[in-house]
Design a protein that fits this description.
By secondary structure, the chain is an all-beta fold. The chain is about 0% helix and about 40% strand.
């Protein structure tokens, strides 16, 4: 039977081998043996510090498609009475502050963040029932362009996308929304802290009963030292199916 992790509230504690302690605390059968053992060990906690990204300027992340343009679309293949539609750009573009009074401009090839797992167009997730376009929701996270190794952007997109991509006369596929989708995006920085702790553990189950943090938590940069690196991948799997682990000590 696998012992449970040594965790409580926000903290994860480095587990210790209690086998020797358990043997030392064995008592005669007529005496109830001690169950809780208090040890000193290291601890780690993680959190995300997030701020909302301003998406009020829709032109920085949305393209308006004109379906009356015969030079771009085969109007016979489009839904009747559809004049315009909306397509997400690969990610948020525009000017983003670097925090020191200067700005960096991100274009479609290098967006401030991508809407999808990679910098490419989405081709899924429509909700069509009985010929009507229903609501759908899409959630992704991706790195922020100005902080690739220390930040992630989490976004949630809701709206009414068509279930079938539209193909233009150049045979390019477009994932089209019937109306302007609603988007919420948070720029989040992972923060890891470590500290020494005293932990009371049930010696028979490994479940933490109580704990106290013995010193002031300090930043632990090594916990995020292998971000976005593929580790412990299994031989024979394709790149798309490899599990990507993050190193956390």
């Amino acid at each position: 039977m696998t012992s449970p992790p040594w965790t409580s509230n926000d903290w994860a504690f480095t587990p210790l081998n209690l086998t020797a302690v358990q043997k030392a605390t064995n008592a005669p059968v007529f005496t109830k043996p001690a169950r809780n053992i208090t040890v000193e060990t290291s601890s780690l906690r993680a959190r995300l510090e997030c701020s909302q990204i301003d998406l009020s300027n829709t032109s920085t992340w949305l393209t308006v498609l004109d379906f009356t343009d015969d030079s771009t679309w085969n109007t016979n293949s489009l839904p009747s009475n559809l004049l315009i539609g909306y397509e997400l750009k690969p990610g948020l573009t525009g000017n983003e502050s670097t925090g020191n009074g200067t700005y960096i401009s991100w274009d479609d090839s290098h967006p401030y963040f991508s809407f999808f797992a990679a910098d490419e167009n989405l081709q899924c997730c429509g909700n069509n029932s009985n010929g009507s376009v229903g609501e759908a929701a899409i959630g992704y996270w991706s790195p922020a362009a100005d902080a690739l190794h220390t930040s992630v952007v989490v976004k949630w997109i809701t709206g009414h996308p068509f279930s079938t991509p539209f193909i233009d006369i150049n045979n390019q596929s477009h994932f089209v929304w019937e109306d302007v989708p609603q988007v919420t995006a948070l720029n989040c920085t992972p923060v890891f802290e470590s500290a020494s702790a005293r932990v009371a553990v049930d010696s028979s189950t490994g479940v933490v009963q109580d704990y106290s943090i013995e010193d002031t938590p300090t930043l632990e940069p090594n916990a995020w030292s292998s971000q976005y690196q593929q580790l412990n991948t299994s031989a024979g799997l394709t790149n798309s199916s490899n599990v990507q682990n993050l190193s956390v000590r």
